Amino acid sequence: MDTTRRSGCEQDIYVSNIVLHPGYSTNSQSHHDDIAVLHLRRPATLGPCVGTICLPAPGAEPTPGQQVRLAGWGMVAFNSDETAKQLKNPSREVLPLSSCSSAYPSYLLNAFYPGGLGTNKICVASGQNIPICKGDSGGPVVWFMPGPRRYLLVGVISVGIGCGADHPGINIRVAPYVQWILANR
Questions:
Q1: Cα separation of 60 and 155, whole Å?
Q2: Domains along the chain?
């Protein structure tokens, strides 16, 4: 996908409503419950370029060492105003949550996640080749589940430092929110 030329796959659809999770506060730096449901003004037209993705069932999530893919159109580098011209879609390794806890300075971790990370996060390794950066937040964290051979939306990009060059990304796990998502679709 490339923003510099049209391929015929594009669909411009306005968002008609945003439902923020009730545990998320726009008046706080806290990123607990950093998830929302977007209602589109009209349904997307499904086809070869636009499809759906499955929500995870309980227990259907990647474990540390497995690979996930992230996607976003955010900034191409730290301290840059240039957004991606092509969709960033890097593969990253899932890390134990403790890796994110130990990689972030405690003052930042406490500001973003008062009381600690909790269990509703998924930690993903950093990568310099394709940075996940400002503007990518809200993008998908996708896992290919080998058993049934299907893609699952297992996370939502949330927080990182310096475009993820030296720090792993902290993402919101989708599984704990599936019932809330279904109730607000």
A1: 12
A2: 52-175 (2.40.10.10)
